[in-house]
Amino acid sequence: MNDYPNRILDDKQLEELLSRPAEETVEMFKRLEGDIMFLGIAGKIGPSLANMAKRACDEAGIKKRIIGVSRFSCDEEKKHIEELGIEIFQGDLLERDFLESLPKVKNVFFLAGMKFGSEENASLTWAMNSYLPALIAEHFKDSKIVAYSTGCVYPLVDIDSGGSKETDVPKPLGEYAQSCLGRERMFEYGSKKYNTPVVLIRLNYAVEPRYGVLIDIATKVKNSIPVDLSMGYFNVIWQGDANNQVLRSLEYTETPAKILNITGQETLSVRDIAEEFGKIFGIMPIIVGEEAQTAFLNNSDLAHNLFGNPKLSINKLLKWTGYWIEDEKKILGKPTHFEVRDGKY
């Protein structure tokens, strides 16, 4: 299962790696009761997460109804997801009639939300990130729910702290992070009111060669754009590892809702990562500013105790990302803005 290549050749190989289920994930699907729905399937994570679930079912030799729900602003993405063998429901989850038309399956993954542009459209940000979760918690009150959140609900912490733990008090900075805490509170409320088993995933950050913090740094180094050290440290996890952990979280849903930090083990230095990319590209990175003593950092010991350590090393991730850029392959072109320190995305 861990026969990772030295270099990812194309999108097809990358998609296979992102959606490759671990043996533990396949075993879980053998035990899992009921069908599966992915709300907000379109985007960076949804397609590979749902495909991993489909592949896990196939490898487990079981049949489940796997459903993807989205507005699908891109027809090409909709076609791609349908070709994976995933049943599609197209519509706006904020429309009550559409939401109430959805089948009430046993297992629900909530991926819908808004981050970029949140400062320009605060009302929609709150509707997507707080109001919609309240609707979902009510409609799927008899399901198990795994809902994506963000490590940004924590405050900036000292870089030597080891990162925020699930037991730490949230102190969200800016309206985006505040609305994400609102999302969590709505699922917590639904969990308590309806006795719904829930896991809240505080992800910080999932990366792959087309998107993420590593791509943000790598493209700046490659194009001789200054790398800002304002946010000098960060955590990342390979999206394939995160996908496996998120799927397996279904077995750890609880009432009241359980919180899980999902990220890598290391606290990474922006300066060090930029220098490593510089070696790959044969370029001296342009580095500006000084590292602050604080950053958004998560402690993921609880998840690692449940699922084991991530299978992909940071060194492999660096090489894959660097080679992807070096080969001039397509990236998503959506900066993470990880360097933002005031919460304004």
Which features does this protein show?
345 residues, NAD(P)-bd_dom_sf, Epimerase_deHydtase, alpha/beta, 15% strand, Rossmann fold, globular
Q: At the fourth CATH level, what is the homologous superfamily?
A: NAD(P)-binding Rossmann-like Domain
Number of strands: 15
Instruction: Work out the radius of gyration.
Output: 19 Å
Strand % is: 5-15%
CATH fold category name: Rossmann fold
Domains (count): 1
Order of the strands making up the biggest sheet: 3-2-1-4-5-7-12
- Please tell me the CATH architecture by its name: 3-Layer(aba) Sandwich
Helix fraction, binned, reads 25-40%
Q: Please report the number of helical segments.
A: 12
Protein name: NAD(P)-dependent oxidoreductase
Domain NAD-dependent epimerase/dehydratase: 39-204
